[in-house]
Each structure stands twice: as C-alpha cells, then as structure tokens.
Amino acid sequence: MKKIFARLVLKLIGWKVELQGDVNNLNRCILVVAPHTHNSEYLLGNLAYLSLGKRLKIIIKDSHTKAWYGFLVKSFGGVGIDRAQKNDLVNFVAEEFRKDDFSLVITPEGTRSWVPKWRKGFYHMALAAKVDVVLAAGDFKRKTMFLGYKIPFERIASISYDDLLKEIEEYYIKYDITPKIAANWNPKLSGE
After folding, report:
1. In this model, does residue 9 exceed pLDDT 90?
2. Beta 29-33 vs 132-139: how paired, if at all?
3. Are the beta carbons of 113 and 185 closer than 8 angstroms?
4. Whole-angstrom Cα distance, residue 106 to residue 36?
5. For residues 189 and 186, what is the distance between their CA atoms, to the nearest angstrom?
6. What are phi and psi of 31, to 5 degrees?
7. Cβ contact 76:46 at 8 Å
8. Residue pair 28/48 in contact by the 8 Å Cβ criterion
9. What is the pTM of this model?
10. Which residues pair with 151 in a beta bridge?
11. Are the C-beta atoms of 115 and 186 separated by less than 8 Å?
12. Which end of the chain is more exposed for a tag (fewer CB within 10 A), N or C?
C-alpha cells in the first residue's frame, strides 16, 4: 500500500525516480543523501524509497520519536537518539545492521545550511557495519530523485577517506545536481 501511495504522490507532484544500478543495492547500506538544503528533500527521498518498496531508517532527535506524532515518525523509519547523551553512534549503527537489513539515511553535511566540509560519520559507520555506501540526490531542476549508485564495502575499506570523497564529489558533478536552495550546497565535499 505504501509503495502505491508513494508512486501516486510522486506522479502528482511531477517527480520521477531514476534508479542507478540494481534495486537490491538499496537493501542494506548507508544511504548518503546530498545535497541536504531543505526539509522537502527528506520527504521526496522517503517517497522515492517507498515507491521502490524498500526499508529506510533515519537517525533523528529522540524528541521527534517521543512527541505526540512519534508513532508516525517511527512508521517512516525514524530512530530516536538522545543528542544530550554521549552516544557511540558508530557502534550503535553497526549493531542495528547486525540485527536487520535496511538502508540508513545519512546526510553528511549535518545541517541544511552551507558547510565547509562533510562529517566523517557515514564513512566510519559503513566500515564498522561492513555495508556499502549508496548515493542519493534530489535534483530540483529536473525533478528527479537519483538513487542506487553503489560504492561497495570492499572498495571503501581499501581506499582513503579522501579518495572516497573525491569519488562522491565526481558523482555530484557528473549529474549536475541542483538542490532546493543552491546557496546552502557546497559541492567541494572535503573543504579544499
């Protein structure tokens, strides 16, 4: 039912999903979503994932999962984390992957504002959980969600973080991604 609903909503608002690679790339991965400049990108990404019938989780402030609407947040994959506590998020994520197969959304920018460089958490999570990194991007010029470009775990484990960032940066340049708010996107991921 969610799959049909998501496809209908995307069609009504004029968005399409371009799958890059096998749909099974989306079964068990760290899903790196960028640019992250506006909340609507999350909603569109969630609809795109649902339209493909895939399970998605996202780490968010636990205030959202504990609020009156928390049941809704959880039903769309929200996993609440208390940011006031010192959490070992990397090992928490690795443990979740040991229990279940899903895609975990990570926005390495860490905010919807412009940042000089990406945070490394997605890289450490992929290494600890021994899962692939899959890229996703919402292009507001073409009204297209790109999903499925896979960087296999074996490759991630064999190259440096800087080399991984270069590969990801080349991806976003190649597809000429236009975010919702262009001024909030820094396409130089390493900050150099």
Report:
1. yes
2. parallel
3. no
4. 10
5. 7
6. -95, 105
7. yes
8. no
9. 0.88
10. 133
11. yes
12. N
58's tokens:
């996202």
- pLDDT, tens digit (0-9, with 9 covering 90-100), for 107-120: 887 777 787 788 89
User: What angle separates helix 39-51 from helix 2-12, to the nearest 10 degrees?
Assistant: 130
pLDDT at 83: 65
**Whole-angstrom distance, CA of residue 56 vs CA of residue 46:** 8
CA 30, CA 18: separation in Å to the nearest integer? 18
Instruction: Determine the length of the chain.
Output: 192
Q: Kindly list the distances between the CA atom of residue 44 and the CA atoms of 13, 95, 118, 145, 162, in Å, as whole numbers in the listed order.
A: 10, 28, 22, 8, 29
**CA 25 to mean position of chain CA atoms:** 13
Percentages helix, strand, coil for the chain, rounded to the nearest 5? 45, 20, 35
Q: Which of 79, 70, 127, 122 is nearest to 100 (CA)?
A: 79
Q: Is 183 exposed, middle or buried (0-12, 13-18, 19+ CB in 10 A)?
A: exposed
Q: How many whole angstroms separate alpha carbon 20 and alpha carbon 34? A: 15
* CB neighbour list of residue 186: distance below 8 Å, 6 or more residues apart: 109, 114, 115, 116, 117
What's CA 147's distance to the chain center, in Å? 10
The residue type found at 15 is: W
Mean pLDDT of 122-138: 95
Q: Which residue has the tokens 């049909």?
A: 4
Which residues are registered as beta bridge partners of 56? Answer: 103
